[in-house]
Structure prediction request, 175 residues.
Amino acid sequence: MWDDEECQGLEDPDLFTRVEKMEAKATLLGEDEAGKVDAIPVYLTKPKKRDYNARWMVMWQEEAEGTGLSIMEQAANKELNVTDFRVRDYIMCKAGIGNFVHVSQTEASRWLGIAQPHISSSIKKLIKLGIILAGPSAGKFKTYQVNPAFVYVGSLGDGVKKRKDAIKERSEMLQ
Prediction:
């Protein structure tokens, strides 16, 4: 039933070293539907190193059912100016899981090189348009949530669900 080639690693003194390095050939025993045991060679290889030291987010391109929240709808919105887009992008990049973010307008002003009153004005406009949502104050910082109908920080599956819920909420609010 077994041939030497399939079992060659069993007497290999370097087998355990190679297994530790995730580079080895092993034999997997399995049963088919008839109950016959069969040996299948399996090759273990070291997984490729994936260096994802960056945060990511999902942005929705298509229209958000007339809510004005998709990238395309925002680009066409004549109420938004370059400062508004820069403030929006700054807030988006600060968002964590669930899209929540603490924003110091003074810090945003320094980082973006925009006067604090303009930051405040842009934030108010973004809230009015539903692009960001106002949250409770946390000490001297205000908290916001980037609307999940526009962008989501986290897994794609959660993002799709959160987007549907946010679009529904926004549509009901606009009616």
In short: The mean pLDDT is 75. Residues 156-174 form the longest helix (19 residues). The chain is about 40% helix and 20% strand. The chain has two domains: 4-44, 58-174.
